[in-house]
Design goal:
- The complex is a heterodimer of chains A (about 425) and B (about 425).
- Chain A is of the alpha+beta class and about 425 residues long.
- Chain A is about 40% helix and about 20% strand.
- Chain A has 14 helices and 17 strands.
- A seven-stranded mixed sheet of chain A has the order 1-2-3-11-4-10-9, sandwiched between helices. A six-stranded mixed sheet of chain A has the order 14-15-13-16-12-17, sandwiched between helices. A two-stranded antiparallel sheet of chain A has the order 5-6.
- In chain A, helix 3 packs parallel to helix 7, helix 8 packs across helix 14 and helix 10 packs across helix 14.
- Chain B has about 425 residues and is of the alpha+beta class.
- Chain B folds into two domains: about 220 residues, 2-Layer Sandwich (Cytochrome Bc1 Complex, Chain A, domain 1); about 180 residues, Metalloenzyme, LuxS/M16 peptidase-like (Cytochrome Bc1 Complex, Chain A, domain 1, 2-Layer Sandwich).
- In chain B, the strands form three sheets. In chain B, strands 1-2-8-3-5-4 form a six-stranded mixed sheet, with helices on both faces. Chain B has a five-stranded mixed sheet with strand order 9-13-10-12-11, sandwiched between helices. In chain B, strands 6-7 form a two-stranded antiparallel sheet.
- In chain B, a hairpin with a 2-residue loop joins strand 1 and strand 2.
- The longest helix of chain B is centred in the first third of the chain and has 18 residues.
- The chains are: A alpha+beta (about 425), B alpha+beta (about 425).
Chain lengths: ~425, ~425
């Protein structure tokens, strides 16, 4: 009775909540040799302040990512090599709101799954190994900070949000990670790596019952308490309207972002995400009149694009790329949004873009990684991503108009720019 | 999978990879030309110019609208180097008919648009639109220039161009800057017409439609293909052995040095070379990774690649300038160990697992399938993932040792910093 069949997208999923609170999803993929397991905790870069054992703890920025690096250490050595010896390709990532560990293999699936579940659930840190990681992560942070795309995005978020912990750089800073100790890592693991805060997703031709048996065998019998988190008390208005910095880049780049109303836990989350994406395509996608006009005027090139993002207590609609006149592009986007919101709506374009989005969504489920990450995000935020076709049908042109009217406005707008020059020179504007 | 390859028109072959497990269908059509310095730039540029517009959909807006209507179908231009051949064309990917709402079909209209892109480009005065030609030429020059920004890629290119100077294999996939710079719109249009008339066309389809349906759609879409005499592709040329090792170095404003080493192989047991290479430097459990990088920390990365179609092995590493000799010596020492059969059981087991895993999962990705079967058709190899797996399972240490003993140092390339050069 735990199977759900999704005919419109051709998926069949085994879903269960185990006695220890672990969410289990097994997506059947007959005819595939690959087997993919994704084990994730609802814990990421933005979860720095939380309550454990009745006390509020403030942990250093970058700690979730640091913990991810250290989890591969085991008492017997290193789990990465164990998995690689079986021909599996293991890896992990940390995002704002999750940390995920995974492997991909065609042989020894059950053995690999055991290794994955045990190294993620059993921490093993020593002072020496934690100290040794400082240098490696510091190098990684310097590399990230040298990346103009990252800088421009990060600074856009900082301009938009005053208090939200979504402002925190996922890897932290070279300074913030200095305070990380083995003890703090153990406490974070204790709080967030409990079965009831995690989800295991397997995609491939496997028997769900076997996956369940192995999860029960390896993982702790009991879940953990619910951990209250503090994402910061965010006011509706933006922090600052414009930020500009010089870096060693060939051409000026920009991102313009609009602070949006965050989504509610539940199906509203997915619905909101779909409306935001559709609004982005209609307003500034490659087939939109605005895109074609800006392109013809030489104000944007093929680097231009936009997206819509949701996190707990956070929503952002943004667009950007290379441009010699970021302000003109930003104004054009805001004006066009107002024009569309006021009622001028190209129904033919709307109908075509809906088709594209439909096709893109279903296409994306070719990827095992996308399937697993979507199910995980859905689980953490209270919706089922495979109900996409049904939900998509309920979205109307008025939803798109309302979205643009409420969110894509001059008050909600920020502009983050990187201009060519000496690295690190701040030439911040004063706000619009 | 019941895989078939058959001619469907003069010099046009269709490879069908039937699969119902994907959400999408994939259709790839590639013209195959001999790789040569004189023509590489033009061949690389043609698909990008064609992709800008057709007679019926003459600009980006109208082309996107057509694709939007087809549920976001994609048609991307591609240029690949396969051995000493250059493949240029389009790869289309579109929602499988089973997932299209209503009973609409996408295979036929997508194939028709693909044919239109090949056969009916928007023209002016009998040649490509100058505006499209100019901007795509600029884009191609940018792409060639940007190889220089990626020092690892750049150093790898430099090694091959020096090592295989005078051989087609030394030519870059995108052509050289100066040759692209010299292209004119009229000349490019003639090259395009010549490609249509004379180049073999390899088509690969992977998806749930039957071979007949795909064939019918293609016949309709390519009915106007103006075929002349189809050119017979030249055989691949073997790498000319070198009497003395060639040493080349460049100086650039970089902080990390790049040491690239080329070896020639003189064995036709390619499966033994392939596996020997995985042991040597082809994985994160290989000798180069475990020793040169992890144990001795002589480099930031060190790996090797086997160029099967040309029988070469190349090593790529990023090192501190001062570590040049130590890194070089250690790389050669690791090769010597492979040649002496000096490895542990887990090393060979791991090499076997990695290869078996990659052959087993080949059928799980449409892109990987397309690339494998296109490459097979172009180079005339007849092995399959199954036959290669079998060969890996039964591979003996003796065969690996014998084949790897023919590996001989050929060319050493070093990219050093400007200051280090002074």
């Amino acid at each position: 009775m735990n199977f759900t069949q999704y005919d419109r997208i051709g998926e069949r999923v085994y879903s269960k909540t185990l006695a220890n609170g672990l969410e289990l999803r097994v997506v059947s993929r007959p005819d595939y040799a690959r087997k993919y397991a994704f084990f994730a905790t609802r814990y990421g870069g933005m979860d720095t302040r939380f309550q454990l054992g009745g006390q509020w703890l403030d942990t250093p920025p970058g700690i979730a990512h640091y913990l991810e690096h250290k989890m591969f250490d085991t008492e017997d050595g290193n789990a990465l090599q164990e998995l690689a010896k079986n021909g599996a390709e293991p890896n992990a990532f940390t995002s704002n709101a999750m940390t995920g560990y995974y492997f991909d293999s065609t042989q020894h699936f059950e053995e690999n799954l055991r290794i994955l579940l045990s190294f993620v659930s059993v921490p093993y840190f020593t002072k020496e190994s934690v100290d040794k990681e400082q240098g490696i992560i510091a190098q990684e942070i310097r590399m990230i900070e040298d990346n103009p795309d990252w800088q421009i995005y990060h600074r856009m978020v900082e301009a938009m949000y005053k208090q939200s912990t979504a402002r925190i750089a996922i890897a932290g800073s070279v300074e913030s990670i200095r305070d990380i100790t083995a003890e703090t890592l153990y406490r974070c693991h204790e709080a967030f790596y409990t079965p009831s805060n995690m989800i295991l997703t397997v995609v491939g031709d496997v028997q769900p019952e076997r996956v369940e048996e192995i999860a029960v065998e390896i993982l702790p019998a009991a879940g953990g308490p619910v951990i209250p988190r503090d994402y910061g008390h965010e006011p509706p208005e933006v922090a600052v309207h414009e930020l500009r910095r010089s870096m060693e880049v060939a051409t000026p780049q920009f991102l313009t972002g609009f602070k949006c109303r965050p989504a509610e836990y539940g199906e509203d989350w997915l619905r909101q995400a779909l409306i935001g994406e559709l609004a982005s395509d209609i307003l500034l996608g490659e087939s939109s009149p605005l895109y074609l006009k800006l392109y013809d005027d030489g104000l944007i090139n093929s680097t231009f694009g936009g997206d819509y993002e949701l996190l707990p207590g956070y929503a952002c609609f943004y667009a950007g790329g290379d441009s010699r006149d970021a302000r003109a592009v930003t104004d054009a986007i805001t004006d066009e949004a107002a024009r569309i919101a006021a009622g001028e709506f190209d129904m033919d374009l709307y109908r075509r873009l809906r088709r594209t989005m439909y096709g893109e969504y279903i296409r994306s489920f070719n990827s095992f990684e996308t399937v697993a990450v979507s199910l995980t995000e859905g689980c953490f935020n209270g919706y089922d991503p495979f109900r996409f076709p049904e939900l998509f049908e309920t979205i109307t042109p008025e939803d798109v108009r309302a979205f643009l009217r409420d969110n894509v406005t001059p008050e909600n707008r920020v502009l983050s720019e990187i201009v060519p020059g000496d690295a690190g020179g701040d030439v911040d504007g004063t706000g619009a | 999978m019941n895989i078939t390859r058959k001619p469907i028109a003069d010099g046009v072959n269709l490879t069908c990879l039937p699969a119902r497990k994907f959400k999408t269908g994939l259709l790839s059509a590639q013209f195959v030309a001999p790789l040569s310095a004189q023509t590489a730039g033009a061949v690389a540029l043609i698909p990008s110019v064609l992709r800008r517009g057709t007679v019926d959909a003459p600009d980006m807006g109208r082309l996107s609208a057509r694709l939007d209507d087809l549920y976001g179908a994609r048609i991307d231009e591609t240029v690949r180097k396969i051995g000493e051949y250059q493949c240029a064309g389009f790869v289309a990917s579109f929602l499988d008919d089973r997932f299209v709402p209503g009973s609409e079909r996408l295979l036929e209209p997508v194939t028709a648009l693909l044919g239109e892109l090949f056969l009916r480009p928007v023209t002016e005065n009998g040649v490509f639109l100058p505006a499209y030609f100019d901007s795509e030429k600029t884009n191609l020059l940018d792409a060639i220039g940007s190889i220089r920004n990626d020092k690892r890629l750049w150093a790898g290119r430099r090694l091959l161009s020096e090592m295989c100077a005078g051989e087609p294999y030394g030519v870059s996939r995108l052509g050289e800057e100066a040759d692209v710079e010299a292209l004119q719109v009229g000349g490019l249009y003639s090259s395009y017409r010549e490609l249509l008339a004379t180049a073999p066309l390899e088509i690969v389809y992977c998806g749930s439609a039957s071979g007949e349906e795909v064939e019918d759609a293609l016949r309709a879409a390519l009915s106007g293909l103006p075929r002349g005499e189809i050119r017979t592709l030249p055989e691949m040329s073997p790498h000319a052995p070198r009497a003395d090792v060639l040493h080349i170095s460049d100086a650039m404003d970089v902080t990390q040095g790049k040491l690239e080493i080329g070896f020639s192989c003189d064995s036709d047991d390619y499966m033994a070379l392939l596996m020997g290479n995985v042991l040597f430097g082809g994985s994160s459990n290989s000798k180069l990774f475990m020793n040169v990088r992890e144990k001795l920390s002589l480099c930031y990365y060190a790996s090797s690649a086997f160029h099967r179609k040309k029988n070469l092995i190349t090593v790529s590493s990023g090192i501190e300038f001062g570590n040049y000799q130590a890194a070089f010596d250690e790389i050669m020492e690791q090769l010597r160990m492979v040649q002496a059969g000096d490895w542990e059981d887990w090393e060979i087991d791991s090499a076997r697992s990695i290869l078996l895993n990659s052959y087993a999962s080949l059928g799980d990705g449409q892109g990987k399938l397309e690339n494998f079967y296109l490459s097979r058709a172009v180079s005339g190899f007849d092995d399959t993932p199954e036959s290669m797996s079998e060969s890996v399972r039964t591979m003996s240490a003796e065969r690996i040792i014998e084949a790897m003993r023919t590996v001989k140092l050929d060319t050493v390339y070093f990219l050093k910093g400007k200051e280090a050069a002074e």
